[in-house]
């Protein structure tokens, strides 16, 4: 059963990390976390999910949003062992940390089971307080994902209310962009 | 000179509307407004700007975000008269209101001059209080535009702070989506 | 009724040329002719037909294949007059000659009627002897169009049979490409 | 050193076939052969080379053109063993035969060395007489590949010269297409 949105996300169970050593959800408290669950031999993950995860990483400030990959292998286990994943991450130039979901005897890995994922690609969004807030299976348009992440970014310290009620959004800022603080707003 | 972000957006000067009769910026107070300035014979508008504007309209709730087109003809005037625009809007199935920027003797139409637009496509984002908050010229990725609009949506009545500090984002919601109110959050 | 393939293509009736002065089909005898019939406000022409016509022009040798546009306006006549087409061709950087199909009282222009075109975009392929050999309505994949044109190119002087029976295809050649003449074949 | 075009293609050395049992080049004499050399973890192969090979197979008649994949692993050998390739072919729905190039002690597999391939994706076109006629490394546009294959198809029995000199191209035919035989040509 899928984990309900609004509930605290249980920690993952990862047997090995690439691009990072031993990352716990609690370490990321205060930041929005986007978790891209994928399999290296899943066509939709390669064509859509992983490129979108990379764009999320490139769009939002690292102080606000952390992007993580989770390799949730539930089929073709022998073909997607960690050493193969390592080659895949190298060839596809994945630049965010990727954890290998802990295998279980039943075939569905441990974190996938805990989170109630239906398959890959799945995108989970976790708020600054560690609660699951969105759970997508399959392709989701960038416009919508951008909106959802920004809404979560805006819930935390990234939004400041100034005297006149104007706020400065925390994410996705650039010169001439939406941030009115730099431009004379307020 | 481009209008500074953070300042109130002056009203437009439109000689004719398609898809709406006589729309004023003041009528939209309380909602975020996305203005897509385009020319019907501008390739970047046809391939990028207008499809993105349509996606914005399809992604956000109409109560939160209004999408408008502004036909700012600054070249090839004879080829882009309102009767030709009407055929264009029909063929390209543009489903949001489009205003024809009032021509001026100098060639640059009136609203384009007021807003200090550099060319087409340009995307302006106006907050719920009527202030210009983002001004883009050229192609902008969907992920970023989605984030910027959501940040503005979150500034207004669309965000409710509940007892425990959780908020319910106002835009881009769906069952199982980011809205924790429906899902038991808070 | 559509003109039968295999029959000589009647000459077009063009009221004005852009990019060329007064071109007749008979002038092109000995070369394959690709005719892209389009309307400037037809979305499928802008997104598919015209870019493909440009790629045809860029792929094949001009001695073998001539690409022509034919502006066959059968709707929104006032919006697609020759002066508007001229602006369109400039903005979209169309680099092959485009003829304006002669208007008729009935609305369907003269050449469109002669050729029995169903609409736009339509792609006609004419062989070196002036016969219509392919007639496509709508989007056709590049792989297939490339194959069809090459088959017609191969029918003429572009193919030389050498002593051992090897032939040198006339079109789409490049160093290291398919032409075995340059590479030691035969 | 790359094999010269125009020369007979040496037979491949394949340790295992998927989708076919024991295929030799000599078996295909009389047909054009398109060989797509790839690695399952090569991004350009996944995004461009393999989909193009599939389109080639879907466009040309099987009597004229045979499409084969060749898995030429020259890096990350442990991650791209035949059992992993089998899962890959299943997930990506590759419907043409794929041979596993025989490994060698040096790392570059045997057929890759014989053919002088520079890397993956590489596309080789072999004529009806078994000679290599085109050798591409990297992405090649569909229009050009279609033209090259059709030129080779036209060299063989697929082209018939009728009394009046008209020929019927052998490949990529469809009702209303380029084949003038069916349409009354000649």
Helix content of chain A: 25-40%
In N-to-C order, the SSE pattern of chain A is EEHEHEHEEHEEH
Indicate the structural class of chain A.
alpha/beta
Give the CA-based shape of chain A.
globular
Hey, which two chains have the biggest interface?
Answer: C-D, 48 and 48 residues
| Main β-sheet, spatial strand arrangement of chain A | 1-4-3-2-5-6
Note the main sheet of chain A.
6 strands, mixed
Residues in β-strands, percent of chain A: 15-25%
Query: What oligomerization state is this entry in?
Result: homotetramer
Q: How many helix segments of chain A? A: 5
Distance between the termini of chain A: 47 Å
| Radius of gyration based on Cα positions of chain A | 17 Å
Mean pLDDT of chain A: 85
Point out poorly predicted stretches of chain A.
Answer: 158-186
Count every beta strand of chain A, where a strand is a DSSP E run of 2 or more residues. Answer: 8
Give me some keywords for this one.
homotetramer, alpha/beta, 5 helices, 20% strand, globular, disordered C terminus
3D architecture notes:
The structure is a homotetramer of 186-residue chains. Chain A has 186 residues and is an alpha/beta fold. Chain A contains 5 helices and 8 strands. Chain A has helices at 43-59, 82-91, 110-115, 142-153, 180-183, and strands at residues 14-18, 32-38, 65-71, 98-101, 122-126, 132-137, 160-161, 167-168. A 6-stranded mixed β-sheet of chain A has the order 1-4-3-2-5-6. In chain A, a hairpin with a 5-residue loop joins strand 7 (160-161) and strand 8. Chain A is globular. The model of chain A is unreliable at 158-186 (pLDDT under 50). At the C-D interface, helix 1, strand 6 and helix 4 of C face helix 1, strand 6 and helix 4 of D.
């Amino acid at each position: 059963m899928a984990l309900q949105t609004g509930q605290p996300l249980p920690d993952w169970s990862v047997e090995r990390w690439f691009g990072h050593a031993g990352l716990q959800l609690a370490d990321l408290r205060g930041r929005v976390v986007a978790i891209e669950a994928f399999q290296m031999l899943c066509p939709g993950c390669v064509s859509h999910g992983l490129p979108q995860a990379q764009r999320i990483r490139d769009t939002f400030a690292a102080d606000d949003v952390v992007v993580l990959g989770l390799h949730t292998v539930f089929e073709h286990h022998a073909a997607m062992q960690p050493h193969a994943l390592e080659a895949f991450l190298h060839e596809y130039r994945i630049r965010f940390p990727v954890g290998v979901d802990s295998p279980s005897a039943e075939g569905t890995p441990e974190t996938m089971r805990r989170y109630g994922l239906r398959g890959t690609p799945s995108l989970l969004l976790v708020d600054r307080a560690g609660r699951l807030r969105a759970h997508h299976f399959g392709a989701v348009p960038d416009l919508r994902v951008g909106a959802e992440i920004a809404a979560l970014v805006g819930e935390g310290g990234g939004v400041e209310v100034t005297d006149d009620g104007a706020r400065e959004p925390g994410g996705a800022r650039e010169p001439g962009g939406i941030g009115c603080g730099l431009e004379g707003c307020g």
